[in-house]
Amino acid sequence: MGGEGGNVALSVLRQRECGGSHRAGLQRAASRHYLDCQPALWQEKEITGQLASTLGPDVDKAFAAAWQDDHRLLVGTKSNHLLQWDTSAGMLRSIPLPPAPPRQHEVMETVWGACGIHSVAVNPAGDMVATGGTEPADCAVLRLPDFAPVQTLVGHVDWVFGVAWVSDRHVVTGSRDQSVALWSIPEPGEGAPDVQYKGADGPDGLQRKFEGKVRDVKYDFESCRLAALSTDGCVKLLDAARNLRTTRTVKLPLTKELVCMEQRHDLLAVGSVGHVTLLDPRRRTADLCSVASPDESQGVRSVQLTEHLLSFGTGRGKLFFFDLRASAFLPTEPAPQHAFDYGGEGGLPRCKLAPALAPAWQPRQHLQLGPGHVVLNDLYYDHFAGMDVKHACYAHTWDASRSRLFVCGGPLAFGLQGLYMAVWH
């Protein structure tokens, strides 16, 4: 009986494994289908209005976002709100951040005021989130799903713009103070101090690696590669296992307004004022090509790499999708099949209404962010009254199935307050 029971158990396990493999295959196929067929079929579900009515007029400009799980999103704003949006229940709440702890060095003061939260990152295990702190030069680590404070990371003297997990318990921060830092996070509830400090000197302190401000840090778990982007016009590859030792410095051909970066095991994408530069860090000559933004000089504000698709958002609220296989932008509207047939010479389209004419139909190649919410303050009435204010696409992120894209942003102009948040599906 024991042997027979063991065979039955083994059979059940194999069936489960096959079922799991089959489901994973279906999910991958569905993901590829969504990427190939969209964005021409996407619909926008904007949630900005509900946000404004729930949290009031103080919420301003969504700078960063990450999926907490399949149906919950975490969003960081310029007004220093950490928001959780439940897409299934349609519920929104503001997550309290731990108070700013005392520090040895004063934070640099600027005429721009506070910057808010510029990065939100969930660790691979899904049990912690690292984001900006109450003081924007700090990084707050919270436990998921209850958002209990784990530790506040103190050491940077200027705003933290980039946060990246390199393991379930190690996180890297990058700041405008030209430095990066590697932090070891304790297990929740093990009695560690509420604050972790790093000094400006010493092998375990902040690592001042750059001549310019650090605008983004990204880690790829497949290649174990950590990359940091700086306004001095370079991407540095750092070794997280050797205390952030620099292994390579890649000089960028386009260096104006470097604010965003994304990477996967074989590719780095860096956004600048009018281009997305593609790099292959495995090659001796890393430069591959630069994809010109059709939105002219409006600035690339967010970039993503998803399988064969490069997507990027601009300062005027346009979201583009570039097929890396075909080296072409994807159309974002279906072709008007009712107006054409393909019986022309060489299979070219001809107009049914006027066969002699062969109009060159040009599909739209971007998604335009919706109206969102704009605060009608004095600056608006002085400079923008009556104008169609566009929201910059500061962040966009895919869910695990690649069937939904969360997009968020706000007005690009300094001092103009507003917000945009939507799920495209």
UniProtKB/TrEMBL annotation:
InterPro entries: Beta-prop_DCAF12, WD40/YVTN_repeat-like_dom_sf, WD40_repeat_dom_sf, WD40_rpt. Keywords: WD repeat. It comes from the Eukaryota. SUPFAM superfamilies: WD40 repeat-like. Residues 55-424 form the DDB1- and CUL4-associated factor 12 beta-propeller domain. WD repeats lie at residues 153-185. Pfam families: Beta-prop_DCAF12. PANTHER family: RIBOSOME BIOGENESIS PROTEIN WDR12, WD40 REPEAT PROTEIN 12, 37. This is DDB1- and CUL4-associated factor 12 beta-propeller domain-containing protein.
